Amino acid sequence: MDQLPTWDAAKADDPQYMMNMAKKHAIINTLAENGGQCTFKQLFDKAEELHCDVLTAALHSLKRKKVVAYDSEMPLLNPKDDHVVVTLNKPDFDCFS
């Protein structure tokens, strides 16, 4: 994530900051770039690219806030979960507020 324009290295030890970065850059931006919907595998691939290891926790948090929706209780990296479709319900959600 250190290659992202909004990266603040001074906050790299703050777990909440890191979770918010994951929500914004690995999930919300990826969904927005794909028309508001994509598969768990696409999100996982983006998270891997960003070296983000909190994807499932971030997804679960966003689902509780109704920012995203998906049918699986908690998608995990498993062949049956690769095709779980995640939908963005609140594209203007501010992860940092």
Q: In terms of per-residue confidence, which ranges show pLDDT below 50 for 5 or more consecutive residues? A: none
Q: Identify the strand order in the major beta sheet.
A: 1-3-2
Global Rg: 13 Å
Biggest sheet architecture: 3 strands, antiparallel
- Output the helix-strand order: HEHHEE
Give the overall average pLDDT: 87
Topology (SSEs and partners):
Blueprint: H1 15-33, E1 37-39, H2 40-49, H3 55-64, E2 68-69, E3 85-88
Antiparallel strand pairs: 1-3, 2-3
Helix pairs in contact: 1-2, 1-3
In short:
The protein is mainly α. The chain has helices at 15-33, 40-49, 55-64, and strands at residues 37-39, 68-69, 85-88. Helix content is 40%, strand content 9%.
What does this structure look like?
- The protein has three helices and three strands.
- It has helices at residues 15-33, 40-49, 55-64; strands at residues 37-39, 68-69, 85-88.
- Strands 1-3-2 form a three-stranded antiparallel beta sheet.
- Helix 1 (15-33) crosses helix 3.
- It is globular and about 40 Å long.
- It starts with 14 loop residues before the first helix and ends in a 9-residue tail after the last strand.
List keywords for this structure.
single chain; 97 residues; mainly alpha; 3 helices; 3 strands; 40% helix; 9% strand
